[in-house]
């Protein structure tokens, strides 16, 4: 009996030795990975940020580089501004790839730009998007006019609720979605439009699923991917979205005048005509996914930043009032704000940047280094890194103001990332944030409702971070002529 027991335990011990995961020599430190599971059981899957911020995977414990295993695959986390800059800027060639075998790659069918690996396909499409955005007036007045036009609908919508309270979630989602729709489809939608509502709902559902607990388990144990688990509905939703994009493309095909593009889709169709069958990576299937990528990347991030902005502004009324004073002075006698006005509004600009710092919508970015090692840059740590900020752990616009009250941007402010994979919508997003916030603050006074209890700033973990749902009280301001 004893002999059999010893034999069983010896076998178990040898199997364990065979399948155990060992960190290679000189590999960044981290918690001991378990066979098969790696560090899956070490991480709070509902909200890993808690582990990283002040928890047991914090900077204080493992320093600025550490590693975790998803199954038998290592992922290296870069945790400070200096190491991220070194990787993404100084060694950009090595650190600009994307993993191609995550679940999410199956969803996107390895098309589009956000998840594309570093290479000719990504380069051509990134260049094309930047050029198209520029041609449609990014950085010029025409884009500004389009955004202001969209903001006028937002103002009318909020005005209907003046004197009452609103849940700003849908309001900001609609406006961000409409701005990017203008660029992509040449038109924006009525806020109650069925197409828009379905589009946003499908994107929201996919975000929830790809950030849910099943996905992490499937990354760890890829065999699970073939089972009919709840995450499979994400594929049905993605198919519906692709069909919606296909219908938009076919409508464009039937109404376009070649060489006279009205929007991003027309530009891409012109590009296809010009390239004919030159063997390039441009194709209609790419366009379907590319539209989805840009819509997704441009909507959630911008609207969650706005939600964060107003959460902090209504709970810091003194900061709101100081912005309004500056805005009133600079816009005295003008009908509307212009993006150029930012140069005369150092305090408001500082508040917008501080909002982006605390909102930190894109917390982790995955990159692929040779030999299959995934590199994850942890933007959360950098945007609160001691030594980089005057007040790393509080909401304080002074983080972006010098002694003379002039606007100053610390180098570690990288909410749009840095290096070749930097956000390609940065210019558009910055213009949107400025024009929307300035216009709304000029028109309305926003307040935390008396019966709403204590504000909770802890973000909800998701593909992008978002504040917990809240309501805000709205009142028209008297100073502005209607
Ligand atoms: C406040 C708003 C925004 C924030 C904070 C933001 C942030 C980011 C970040 C951090 C990345 C890098 C992600 C990564 O490497 O995984 C990124 C990439 C990207 N963003 Fe944005 N973004 C915003 C708005 C937009 C808008 C409006 C657009 C649409 C034009 C857009 C399009 C993209 C695209 C296409 C990429 C992928 C670039 C590539 O991989 O080459 N973003 N964004």
From TrEMBL:
Belongs to the cytochrome P450 family. Its cofactor is heme. The keyword Membrane applies. It is found in: Membrane. SUPFAM superfamilies: Cytochrome P450. GO terms for cellular component: cytoplasm; membrane. Heme binds at residue 423. This is Cytochrome P450. It comes from the Eukaryota. GO terms for molecular function: heme binding; iron ion binding; oxidoreductase activity, acting on paired donors, with incorporation or reduction of molecular oxygen, reduced flavin or flavoprotein as one donor, and incorporation of one atom of oxygen. It holds the Pfam family p450. InterPro entries: Cyt_P450, Cyt_P450_CS, Cyt_P450_E_grp-I, Cyt_P450_sf, Cytochrome_P450_fam2. Keywords: Heme, Iron, Membrane, Metal-binding, Monooxygenase, Oxidoreductase. One of its GO terms (biological process) is organic acid metabolic process.
